[in-house]
């Protein structure tokens, strides 16, 4: 579907056509379309949805679009929608929304629903507690499979998932986990303790992204969430975990390019928002880049005497930047997926210095050939020698910086390619002119 | 766990300690440890695992480590392991392994298992067919919920999942889908057709990554896979989908830094492999960077007359590169997650030119201040003016290139930050010297 059906239908004022499309497609497809629209058409399109479809589409939208829609709804529709949301989705709406809307959401809820939402909001931002669902089926240990199935049948309609079933003792403390699969496939008189396993768990205050990555590695459909006394308080389901991981990856990607993560959709975020997400780093990097000006000023005499040296400055620092970006990106990703840990510094340095040396030697041969065609051989030799040194240096610096960041408790993803490039630029120039002094008669 | 327990125990020849650790931890944790080891200790550690643990750990390993282990196993252990694998995992082992091992795997299988594996291998590489499991429970339409549950109980033990249950007609053609949740929660005499929904599906020959992203967006635990006649042939489960997405993201991240994706683990891939994954792009970019040499040669006279201009070359092209990398990365990611489509070119250009203008103006003010301190005001003005033009140009080029790539059927992720940076370098210099000719008395 590479055509903006809804946009086109709305532009043509053909509401019937838009309505037909919106109610005939899957919620995630409708959500993807709505997120591409400007605020007014978004609100119009949302009101064309049938009630059930509207709820499902709303849950698929990003927080930015959810707010746009809530702002546009009149009281009755507003409360209807908010009351029907799952508690964890509702908590996230409240968390992201401006105070006025958040207040309106909480005020419109039944006492029971308000309590559930407020409980989730009590956990720190970015914690598992904010993303878990409290709506699950918990089994007492000692039940037979048949009795457990009866519990599932009695309580399952309201649960977000019934596939993962925590087993608890009399104090609601977690003692194990079983699955609907085991319950259904086991003989009716099997005691659930016999078909339970040790349960991976997360504390409600744990970091949500780490919990999501744990689920991914351990192939869990839901992770049991406990409080500080090991009592079961919720489940983190795989759909929320996958979303958490995708959001974290998108943030890492933005940071890797030296930009803050953009909240909301690329096409509908305001130009000011986009510019702001990039401006801080660009400014900092510009200031850092003045180092290169200082270095060049320092070597101004050398440059004046051998003007041919100036020709290769962009090529040389560009290559250094590229090599540094490659190794930085590889290490940041390896850290994110858990292949490398903070204590691996020396192993990584040893690897990257050999990789850098290999790359530098290959590039030097090519550069020597190119340089010899354009300038005298000693300048070409300076270029080639500098390339080797700069490749080693850039590969090591690019790899070590994210590791140091992790050790200092900073997100390694802030060690962006542009940051590495900028730092390698200035040091690369020093290497280049030092090499020139060694090789050329200066 | 930030200590290499296994490595340390093996180094100390304390096999008992290693064995105890290996069998007490979850399979994904053991796999993460094994992947960090060199080939010989990997094989030793693997043989210390209990049989069931060994199987589960093996399934969690990346293809590279799987091969290392298979190569080290003697016949009996080899066939035991291979026969116990799920058909889809086995197909992937065969697909990645050198011919000799692949042959040994297939030869050791029972005829039924061999047929299932060969069938999966019949689908093109990277297709859904390669990643799906044929082991599922399929329901005939018209059954009651009770009868359907009996089918699940009879066939469920061998199925990879029983939560998603395709509904088929007499010719095994897909007519809908229901879930174990619905079966369990519905009255026993409910006809399954009444609790079924329209089934999202993928063709076995479809691209696996796209199918995985569809599952993520639609929050599916398993996606039904059909052949060209709509007959059900398998299920793509969420754990495989999540792995597919992670692998694709890791590839995109590598490409974004101008490197080929590294097959295997960062720490255990050979130095040669790592260097090779980066060399091609570095060489290409070095050749492209000779454009900057040509541009500088063309303007050599200008440079000789106003040597102060040379001081700002690294700063200027560095900033242009950073701005280009930011917009390229944003658009590549927006394309990957489906926020932007190929036809959005004009919308994106309009956005990015305004973003670039805003950023350029802010940077120009700062640059004017810095430049005025160091050089005469006309050079500073040249720098500031160039920054504005270069920011607009870089933001637009960075954003348009991935879109063009998509339109030409090339993976947008190959439009890496280094590629954009290198292209913006040469054009940025042209802008700079043209600006110099306009502002300075040359």
UniProtKB/TrEMBL annotation, chains A, B:
Leader peptide range in chain numbering: none
Oligomeric and partner information: Homodimer.
Pfam families per UniProt: CBS (PF00571), MgtE (PF01769), MgtE_N (PF03448)
Bilayer topology annotation: Multi-pass membrane protein
Transmembrane residue ranges: 279-299, 311-335, 355-375, 381-405, 417-440
Protein known as: Magnesium transporter MgtE
NCBIfam families given in the database record: mgtE
Gene for this chain: mgtE
């Amino acid at each position: 579907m590479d055509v903006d059906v809804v946009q086109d239908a709305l532009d043509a004022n053909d509401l019937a056509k838009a309505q037909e499309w919106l109610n005939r497609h899957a919620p995630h497809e409708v959500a993807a379309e709505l997120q591409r629209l400007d605020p007014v058409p978004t609100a119009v399109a949302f009101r064309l949805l049938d009630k059930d479809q509207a709820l499902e589409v709303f849950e698929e939208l990003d927080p930015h679009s959810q707010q746009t829609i809530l702002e546009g709804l009149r009281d009755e529709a507003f409360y209807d929608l908010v009351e029907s949301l799952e508690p964890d989705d509702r908590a996230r709406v409240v968390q992201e929304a401006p105070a006025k809307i958040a207040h309106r959401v909480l005020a419109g809820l039944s006492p029971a629903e308000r309590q559930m939402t407020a409980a989730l909001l009590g956990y720190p931002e970015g914690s598992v507690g904010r993303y878990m669902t409290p709506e699950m089926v918990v089994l007492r240990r000692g039940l037979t499979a048949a009795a457990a199935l009866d519990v599932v049948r009695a309580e399952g309609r309201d649960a977000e998932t019934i596939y993962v079933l925590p087993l608890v003792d009399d104090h609601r403390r977690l003692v194990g986990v079983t699955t609907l699969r085991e319950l259904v496939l086991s003989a009716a008189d099997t005691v659930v303790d016999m078909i339970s396993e040790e349960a991976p768990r997360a504390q409600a205050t744990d970091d949500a992204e780490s919990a999501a990555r744990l689920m991914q590695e351990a192939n869990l459909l839901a992770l049991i969430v406990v409080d500080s006394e090991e009592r079961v308080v919720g489940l983190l389901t795989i759909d929320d975990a996958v979303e958490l991981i995708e959001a974290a990856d998108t943030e890492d990607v933005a940071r890797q390019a030296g930009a803050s993560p953009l909240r909301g959709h690329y096409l509908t975020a305001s130009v000011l928002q986009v510019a702001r997400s990039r401006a801080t780093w660009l400014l900092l990097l510009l200031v850092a880049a003045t180092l290169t000006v200082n270095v060049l000023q320092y070597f101004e005499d050398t440059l004046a005497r051998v003007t041919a040296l100036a020709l290769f400055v962009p090529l040389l620092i560009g290559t250094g930047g590229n090599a540094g970006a490659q190794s930085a990106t590889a290490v940041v990703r390896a850290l994110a997926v858990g292949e490398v840990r903070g204590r691996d510094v020396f192993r990584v340095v040893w690897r990257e210095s050999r990789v850098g040396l290999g790359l530098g030697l290959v590039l030097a041969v090519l550069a020597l050939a190119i340089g010899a065609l354009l300038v005298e051989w000693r300048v070409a030799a300076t270029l080639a020698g500098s390339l080797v040194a700069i490749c080693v240096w850039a590969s090591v610096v690019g790899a070590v910086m994210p590791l140091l960041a992790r050790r200092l408790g900073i997100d390694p993803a802030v060690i962006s390619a542009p940051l590495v490039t900028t730092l390698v630029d200035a040091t690369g120039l020093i290497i280049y002119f030092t090499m020139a002094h060694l090789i050329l008669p200066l």
